TrEMBL record:
Binds 1 zinc ion per subunit. GO terms for biological process: D-galacturonate catabolic process; D-glucuronate catabolic process; pectin catabolic process. Its cofactor is Zn(2+). Belongs to the KduI family. Pathway: Glycan metabolism; pectin degradation; 2-dehydro-3-deoxy-D-gluconate from pectin: step 4/5. Zn(2+) binds at H197, H199, E204, H246. It comes from the Bacteria. This is 4-deoxy-L-threo-5-hexosulose-uronate ketol-isomerase. It catalyses: 5-dehydro-4-deoxy-D-glucuronate = 3-deoxy-D-glycero-2,5-hexodiulosonate. One of its GO terms (molecular function) is 4-deoxy-L-threo-5-hexosulose-uronate ketol-isomerase activity.
Amino acid sequence: MHTFIHTRYSNHPSDVKKYDTEQLREHFVIESLFSADEIHGVYSLNDRLIVGGIFPQSKSLELETVDQLKSTSFLERREIGIINVGASCTIDVNGESFTLNHKEALYIGKGAEKVVFHPSESGDALLYFNSAPAHTSFPTTKVDKSNAEIVELGSAENSNARTIYKLIVNSVVSTCQLQMGMTELKTGSVWNTMPAHTHDRRMEAYFYFDLQAGQTVCHFMGEPQETRHMWLTNHQAIICPPWSIHSGAGTSNYTFIWGMAGENLDYGDMDIVSPDQLR
């Protein structure tokens, strides 16, 4: 057994108002996702999204089912999106091999019985994944920056110039409910997802990377008029409930992966909160 998934329960916003820093981190922050030759993750009861990391350092790792799923295989009733945040490696899906380079994505649909992650030559393959319940099966699809939907947002004047790569979204790949993408902050820009927003019909998870040693991101969450903040470092993730904003500002530029699950696949479905309305 090399797979370790822990359960996190949903939280009412009235309860979260009373949490101190330690409690906020315990319920929402995923401190460590990568452990050599293991698969680690969190099963969130917010839309039952699984957030995890795969680190095949010296041996191949098969995607095993876990107790939370009560299934014969991990993808029996699920879909999964994987984005490589380390060195190039190979993933086998039912005997078909896919090479996944740095910042490339792979979508695997419901019903894939055998998925195997192989080490890179350097032993530095790091695979971040999100998995959501699925009602039907769609083809395994690789997505890189050349066939992603790319959006330029923000400005240098507002310290939030950024490039959004929509990798696993319904305009690029057919999915049941999972949506994933990657946002790169340009040099000199630090704010992500500003103006902030909420979306009641889906939850979200953020994974921060490309942060140099000694740098950090202050992530903001909570109801727009009752916000909280937490400091995250490289390769840490955070769960964002549907009622919560999700925004951040770093001490340098960085990259983050956003993943969503819920009943709505419309990327533009969000309730914008202008900066001067936040409290």
